[in-house]
Amino acid sequence: MAATAAATIGFPQAYLEGKEVKETSSLVTELCRHFYTQGWVSGTGGSITMKVHDDSIPKPDQLIIMSPSGVQKERMQPEDMYILSPNGSIISAPSPKPYPNKPPKCTDCAPLFMKNRRLSLGKRLRKLGYKAYEMRNAGAVIHSHGMESCLVTMLNPQAKEFRITHMEMIKGIQGHGYYDELVVPIIENTAYENELTDSLTKAIEAYPKATAVLVRNHGVYIWGDSWIHAKTQAECYHYLFDAAIKLHQLGLDAAKPDHGPIQRHVHSQNHISTKLSVKSRVKDSQNQTEPPRRCIVLDIEGTTTPITFVTDVLFPYARENVGKHLNLTYDTAETQEDIKLLRSQVEDDLRQGLAGAVPIPHADEGKDKVIAAVVSNVEAMIKADRKITALKELQGHIWRTGFECNELKSVVFEDVAEALEKWHSSGIKVYIYSSGSRLAQRLLFGNTNYGDLRKYLSGFFDTTIGNKKENKSYKEITETLGVEDPSEILFVTDVYQEATAAKAAGLEAIISIRPGNASLPENHGFKTVTSFSQI
After folding, report:
1. Record-annotated residues binding substrate 1 (predicted)?
2. Quick one: which of 341, 456, 335 has its CA closest to 401?
């Protein structure tokens, strides 16, 4: 039967019995034993599935090894594994073991065969793991029943998301840094398999940055592009879930940058007034009605910070120190990656005939020639005020040295620090979206003339999420923040085209009028402010 199934999908029986499949099966059993000691797969619960890595086979076409359902995970052997086709159908099933062992089960793994059938919850959830392969091109999926992943969904029975920020282990989650807010969707248990499948699919679609989905009162699904990545992230997620539970027990809020006290609902007049000013529609100074806001996203240059600080301080510092920085750090992986990004950008610039672009030679032509070419290109890019990731990454690394050596001190307008503190205290999450790299943004707000303001910020976005003048970038931010109604996000910028793009994506947009900012078109149609105190 196994030979027939294998031949049908193009995998000979010899391949099923070959080195790659055996090694992957052995790895799954090893991980199950380890996860059992962590409490993730006890009581026969939980599951691990993994692609059979083979360089000769495209990843979407690779076989999948899956641990069986309802068996003692810590006692499994490699021959106890199921072998699945790339579309989830069973190619090879393990032989039953004598009493008192239960027969292995994996009938829920075929997405089409099991459609609309009633299954036990554990079976349904293991079947759902296939969605991560289908929608995220995962290399491995871990389904954990860890106590932390269950309890964390009970802290707030109405919450549709788990949120945490400013924790070191967030750095272990793909696409996240220490200062970022990690958002994990929470889906509800349902009575029918197809209903749960739909909710998981919607969660994966709605949270493109997520690499996990929590199932309330049950567990968590975690995936990565390889088994190592999935395992690492699983360890980080469980640590963060446990940290959030412990912070909650102490009355502290894991979603606040300073992990301050949880805001309780106290039915006093003062509390009601405060809540009304934040969540209800309020009147501004011109007696106009403003919408409720969950998040505020701020531009930097010309909004929080004078344009002159960027043009007269930061840019010249980067231009004057780029050669020195490259010479000192040339052999580091970080600088080599910076040069690689710049070389790729310059190649595009040369194809388009952009002025100032000169070819960057490869390393075998010598360090001095490479550095000279990089310096020439960087000077031309800064002069043209290019808003490109390759330049911004290198600038951020140069500025980091300047801030660490106290050669740089960033400047924000006098109303900024007070407004950030006010919004933070009111429960409004504040984010930064700038063409500068996330590193540069963190450096700027961590070293201001008003001290370290990062404790008031929930995250940072740069051009890796998209061009600031394109509305799809703001749609991506909305999805990343997990905000269902984009009008609950306020974007403040000094650039008309950015405000227009944000508005087209459904966000509320306000234009900042600061000294030195460019003039606006007549009848631009946006509300303007000269100080954050007017917001």
Report:
1. 109
2. 335
Q: Which residue ranges make up the annotated binding site for substrate?
A: 109, 434-435, 468
Residue 32 burial class via C-beta count within 10 angstroms: exposed 0-12, middle 13-18, buried 19 and up = buried
Q: Which two tokens stand for residue 233?
A: 């992230």
HEC-encoded secondary structure of 78-133:
HHHCEEECCCCCEEECCCCCCCCCCCCECHHHCCCCCCCCCCCHHHHHHHHHHHHH
The single residue listed with the structure tokens 């996000």 is 489
pLDDT of the chain, 535 residues: tens digit per residue? 444 444 445 678 888 888 999 999 999 999 999 999 999 988 888 889 899 999 889 888 899 998 887 788 888 899 889 888 887 778 888 888 788 877 666 634 333 223 333 333 334 444 555 566 767 778 899 999 999 999 999 999 888 899 999 999 999 999 888 888 899 999 987 655 445 677 888 888 888 888 999 999 989 999 999 999 999 999 999 999 999 999 999 999 998 888 888 875 443 334 333 333 433 344 444 445 455 678 999 999 999 999 999 889 998 998 999 999 999 999 999 999 999 999 999 999 999 988 889 999 998 899 999 999 999 999 999 888 888 888 988 988 999 989 988 899 999 999 999 999 999 888 899 999 998 888 889 999 999 999 999 999 998 999 889 999 999 999 999 988 888 899 999 999 999 999 999 999 999 999 999 999 999 998 899 999 999 999 9
* Annotated binding-site residue numbers: 109, 143, 145, 218, 299, 301, 434-435, 468, 494
The catalytic residue positions are 168
Length of the chain: 535
Beta bridge partners of 48: 142
Which pTM was predicted? 0.59
Nearest-Å Rg of the Cα atoms of the chain is: 27
Domains, in order of start, for the chain: 14-114+130-250 (3.40.225.10), 295-302+411-534 (3.40.50.1000), 308-405 (1.10.720.60)
Single-letter amino acid, residue 20:
E
Q: Are 225 and 137 in contact (CB under 8 A)?
A: yes
CA dist., res. 437 & res. 431, Å (int): 14
As given in the structure block, the two tokens for residue 523 are 């009848």
Alpha helices, DSSP H, located in 330-430: 333-352, 367-383, 389-404, 416-425
Say if CB 408 and CB 447 are below 8 A apart: yes
Measure Cα distances from 13 to 7, 17, 325, 491, 501 in Å: 7, 6, 57, 58, 56
